[in-house]
Amino acid sequence: MNEQDVTVYVSSATPSAIASKVNGYFIVRGEKIKYKAIAFGRIGGHNVNVKIAKSNERKLRKMGIDPEELIIKVQRKMVVGDMIMPKIKNKME
């Protein structure tokens, strides 16, 4: 599986001075997998930590997909801005 096989969507983001909480989902092989993430952009450069539910990890394994490898691809896509973000309201406004 390559990175073009997964599309990442951001449903909401709550920014703060140090990190942002991000919720969304990604589509892989027609399956929608929800995630929660923390995005950092300061010391050490940009980084995103994506988490999915254990039930979704099991679903991915049944599909023949390594969840850890897929999450790394999702994180990489988010760091480089390769994601779909509908117009979301900034919760700090």
Entry summary:
The chain is 24% helix and 38% strand.
Q: How is the topology of this model organized?
A:
Blueprint: E1 6-15, E2 19-28, E3 31-40, E4 47-51, H1 54-62, H2 67-79
Antiparallel strand pairs: 1-2, 2-3, 3-4
Task: Report on the architecture of this protein.
The radius of gyration is 13 Å and the shape is globular. The N and C termini lie far apart (40 Å). It has 2 helices and 4 strands, in the order E-E-E-E-H-H. The protein has one domain. The mean pLDDT is 89. It is α+β, with helices and mostly antiparallel strands and 93 residues long. The chain has helices at 54-62, 67-79, and strands at residues 6-15, 19-28, 31-40, 47-51. 18% of the residues are buried.
Helix content percent band? 10-25%
Spatial sequence of strands, sheet with the most strands: 1-2-3-4
**Number of contiguous helices:** 2
In terms of per-residue confidence, which ranges show pLDDT below 50 for 5 or more consecutive residues?
none
Q: How would you sum up the major sheet? A: 4 strands, antiparallel
Structural class: alpha+beta
